[in-house]
Amino acid sequence: MNAFKLFSGAILSMLLFSFGTKEDPITIKVKNSLNKQRSFETVTLTKEFLKTNDLSVLGVKDKKTGKLLVTQVVDTNGDGVMDELLFQPVVAAKSTQEFEVIKVSDKVRPKSIEYCYSRFVPERTDDYTWENDKVAFRVYGPVAQKMIEDKIPGGTLSSGVDAWLKRVDYPIINKWYKKVVDKTGTYHEDTGEGLDNFHVGSSRGVGGIAVKNKGQFYIGKNYTEYKTITTGPIRTSFYLKYADWDANGNKIIESKIISLDLGSRLSKFETSLKGTKTIAAGLTLHEKKGKVTGNKKRDG
Q1: pTM strictly above 0.85
Q2: Are 224 and 142 in contact (CB under 8 A)?
Q3: Given the DSSP bridges, would you call strands 268-274 and 250-261 parallel, antiparallel or unpaired?
Q4: Topology of 4-103 in CATH?
């Protein structure tokens, strides 16, 4: 079962899978052990697990209702071959649900809005922005950094993560940036869809990292490279590379893959880091309002 990735494994678990003949579907059983229905847990099936090199022809069907589920295929390494098949099952409280992986034509494949979306934004210096049906975020690129260094207004020097607050479930990234470009509005004011009212500055924002060395925190600068991996109805993900940075004499080499799934308010950060064994992940509390708590025994 190593080839089967279930990101919310504590909530849903695969109990059984069976392979039939070439004509038969693959049957998967998913268990929800909680006392509440789960509907936004992403199941990831790899091509190795499904023993196929063509995930594009496959779909997922609820075995009980016969309904086809919305799915998404992802090319994780950029070689042009799809590596993963994603779906989000609805599983009732304290129950087990069966699903079948079957061949599906595009004619009957269910369609869905591309809620999980991300892109490079050259019209606003060089932000990289991502969103789903709940939230939106952005990070800042080398042009924005150079503007600060050259004392040009409008730049941003930060490796922190900015958060946008959405009131609607439909995509807003392109719409909000267009208002700024057309000078018909601003995303810093709420006109019913939400707004960007979170100030990142040099802080870590909602996910930036720092390295602590001899009692002092050290941070990097803006990202230098990006690559969009996938967008779709279930997940958006992308790659960011940062220029090497110094933490009290230690050269830090940093890159990361960030992903955001449908229905989630939290992005997933897979960070590759050389030059330190420990990091601090930031969640900025402005004006020191609110209460920060933690569990050192549980979190280490």
Answers
A1: yes
A2: yes
A3: antiparallel
A4: Immunoglobulin-like (2.60.40)
